[in-house]
Specification:
By secondary structure, this protein is of the alpha/beta class. It has 9 helices and 39 strands. The structure holds uridine-diphosphate-N-acetylglucosamine (UD1) and calcium ion (CA).
Length: 460
C-alpha cells in the first residue's frame, strides 16, 4: 500500500471525557486509543503515517514514540484544519490519503483495507466509512442521493430534525485521492454552529464539483467513536471479548470470558487454563499448560510452562517452569524465579532471585535477596532490607534452611547448607554448614501456673 498514506487525528482534548489526559491516551484493553487505531492502520499495510497532535502533544508523542511523523496543530480549529496541517508531511509517493480519528479504537484493519479497495475499485474521489446504528445521536449524518452516492455529511449540531432521523453515520474514517483532498481542503470555511473547519465539508465540495463519493458500511461494532467515559467502558468490553476469543482460538481454556481481562498483545501458550477474575496485563507472556486464577493479576510478567498462580499478583517478574504461587501472594517487580520454585500463601517478594527447587511456603517478606537452589525459608521469615535510608542485600546460598520467624538483617549472608534456628534475628554472616541461633534461653518456673490459679481464687 505504498500509494496510501494515513493521517491520524489526535489533536483534540476530548472535553467530554472530563480529563487532564488527552482523550486519545485513555486506554482500552491496556492500550491507548490512538495506539489501537495505529495498529489497525499498520496492519492494513500502510507504512506512511502522519499523526496530528495538539492538546497534550508531548504526551501523545512520548506515548507513541519516534517512529511516526507528527504534525502539530496549534489550535484545534476542527478536523478539516487538522488534516490541512498533515498534508505537507505526506510524501510524493502518496496518492491516496486515509484519514482516521484517533478515538475510534474498534476499527479493524480488514475494514480499513476494504475502504481503501472500494475507493480504488469505484474510482471515486473519496470513500466514506459509514455505520448504521440505532442511536445516531452525536455523529455526523450521511446524506445520500438516490443512486447511493454520498452527497454530504451533516453534523448533529447543524442537522435539521429530518436529518437527525438518518441512521447512517460518519465513522470519521475516509480515503481521499490526494488530488481530491487538495482540491477541496483549502476552500473549507468555518460556517457552521461550532465555528470549526469540518473535514466532512470536503465531501460536499467534491460533490459540488460533480466528483463521485462512495460509502462503505462498516460492521456496527467497529463504528464507535469514544467521546465519553461510558463509551470508553463499552469499547473496553468489546476489545476484551476480542482478546479472549483470540486466546481461545489459540488453544487456551477460559472458563468465563466475561470475567477475564486480557490486554491486547498478551501471549498465552496452548492448554493453559484461566479461571474467573483473572487479569493478564501489559507485556505478559504465559507458557503452556499453566493454571491461572481465580482472582489473579499478572502484569508485564513472563511465566514458563506449567506454572500455577492462584489468587495472587505477579508484576514485572520472570517465573520459571512448574512454579507454584499463592494463594494470596504478591510478587512485586524485579523477581526471577528458577524452575520448580514454590511461593505459598501471604508471601511478598521484591527484587529477589530464587534458585531451582527453593520454597518460601508461608507468610514471608523477602526483598533484595539472592536465594540459591533447594533452600527452605520457614514461615514468617523477614528480610530487614531497609535501614530507613538505604536498601541492603541478603544472600542465602544453596541448601540453606531458615527456621520460622527469622529476621535477616541485611546486608547479611547465610552460606551454603547452613541452618538458622527458628526465631533468630541474624545480623552477622552465617558460615557454610553451621547452625546459627539467636534467641534468649527459655526460662522454666515449676508450679508457677498452679500458684497463679490459687491467688486468683483467693482474690475472688
Ligand atoms: C467527527 C465527525 C463526525 C463523525 C465523528 C465520528 C467532523 C466535523 N465530524 O465528529 O461526522 O460522526 O467524528 O466519531 O469531522 N481533532 C483534531 N483536531 C481538531 C478537532 C478534532 O485533531 O481540531 C481530532 C480529535 O482528537 C479526534 C478526532 O479528530 O480524535 C475527531 O474529533 P471529535 O471532536 O471527536 O469529532 P466529533 O465531534 O466526534
Ligand atoms: Ca469523536
Amino acid at each position: 500500500m505504498q500509494r496510501v498514506g494515513a493521517v491520524v487525528l489526535a489533536a483534540g482534548q476530548g472535553k467530554r471525557m472530563m480529563s487532564d489526559t488527552p482523550k486519545v491516551l485513555h486506554c482500552a484493553a491496556g492500550v491507548p486509543l490512538v495506539r489501537l487505531v495505529l495498529d489497525a492502520v499498520e496492519d492494513a499495510g500502510i507504512t506512511e503515517v502522519v499523526v496530528v497532535v495538539g492538546q497534550g502533544a508531548d504526551m501523545v508523542r512520548e506515548a507513541l514514540g519516534p517512529e511516526y511523523t507528527y504534525a502539530l496543530q496549534e489550535k484545534q480549529l476542527g478536523t478539516g484544519d487538522a488534516v490541512l496541517q498533515a498534508l505537507p508531511h505526506l510524501s510524493d509517493h502518496c496518492k491516496e490519503v486515509l484519514v482516521v480519528c484517533g478515538d475510534t479504537p474498534l476499527l479493524t484493519s480488514e475494514t480499513l483495507e476494504k475502504l481503501v479497495k472500494s475507493r480504488q475499485d469505484t474510482g471515486s474521489a473519496a470513500a466514506v466509512l459509514t455505520g448504521i446504528i440505532d442511536d445516531p445521536k452525536g455523529y455526523g449524518r450521511v446524506i445520500k442521493t438516490a443512486d447511493n452516492m454520498v452527497e454530504a455529511i451533516v453534523e448533529e449540531s447543524d442537522a435539521s430534525v429530518e436529518q437527525k432521523r438518518i441512521q447512517e453515520i460518519n465513522t470519521g474514517s475516509y480515503v481521499f485521492t490526494k488530488e481530491g483532498l487538495e482540491a477541496t481542503i483549502y476552500r473549507l470555511q468555518p460556517d457552521n454552529k461550532q465555528g470549526e473547519y469540518y473535514l466532512t465539508d470536503c465531501i460536499r465540495l467534491l460533490r459540488e464539483a460533480r466528483r463521485p463519493v462512495t460509502a462503505v458500511v462498516a460492521p456496527t461494532i467497529e463504528t464507535a467513536g469514544i467521546n465519553t467515559r461510558q463509551q470508553l467502558a463499552e469499547a473496553e468490553q468489546v476489545l476484551r471479548e476480542r482478546e479472549c476469543l483470540r486466546l481461545m482460538d489459540e488453544g487456551v481454556t477460559i472458563f468465563d470470558p466475561r470475567t477475564t481481562y486480557v490486554d491486547k498483545g498478551v501471549q498465552v501458550g496452548q492448554d493453559t487454563v484461566i479461571h474467573p477474575f483473572t487479569f493478564l496485563q501489559g507485556k505478559t507472556i504465559i507458557g503452556k499448560r499453566c493454571v491461572l486464577g481465580p482472582g489473579t493479576r499478572i502484569c508485564s510478567a513472563v511465566l514458563g510452562n506449567e506454572v500455577t498462580v492462584q489468587d495472587s499478583v505477579v508484576v514485572e517478574s520472570t517465573i520459571g517452569d512448574q512454579c507454584q504461587i499463592g494463594p494470596y501472594s504478591h510478587i512485586r517487580p524485579g523477581n526471577v524465579l528458577a524452575d520448580h520454585v514454590k511461593i505459598g500463601g501471604f508471601v511478598e517478594l521484591k527484587a529477589t532471585s530464587v534458585g531451582q527447587g527453593s520454597k518460601i511456603p508461608h507468610l514471608s517478606y523477602i526483598g533484595d535477596t539472592i536465594i540459591g537452589a533447594d533452600v527452605n525459608i520457614g514461615a514468617g521469615t523477614i528480610t530487614c532490607n531497609y535501614d530507613g535510608i538505604h536498601k541492603h542485600k541478603t544472600f542465602i546460598e544453596d541448601g540453606v534452611f531458615i527456621g520460622s520467624n527469622t529476621n535477616l538483617v541485611a546486608p547479611v549472608s547465610v552460606r551454603k547448607d547452613a541452618v538458622v534456628g527458628a526465631g533468630s534475628t541474624i545480623t552477622k554472616d552465617v558460615p557454610p554448614a553451621s547452625l546459627a541461633v539467636e534467641r534468649s534461653r527459655q526460662a522454666v518456673i515449676p508450679e508457677w501456673g498452679k500458684k497463679k490459679r490459687k491467688k486468683e481464687e483467693y482474690d475472688e
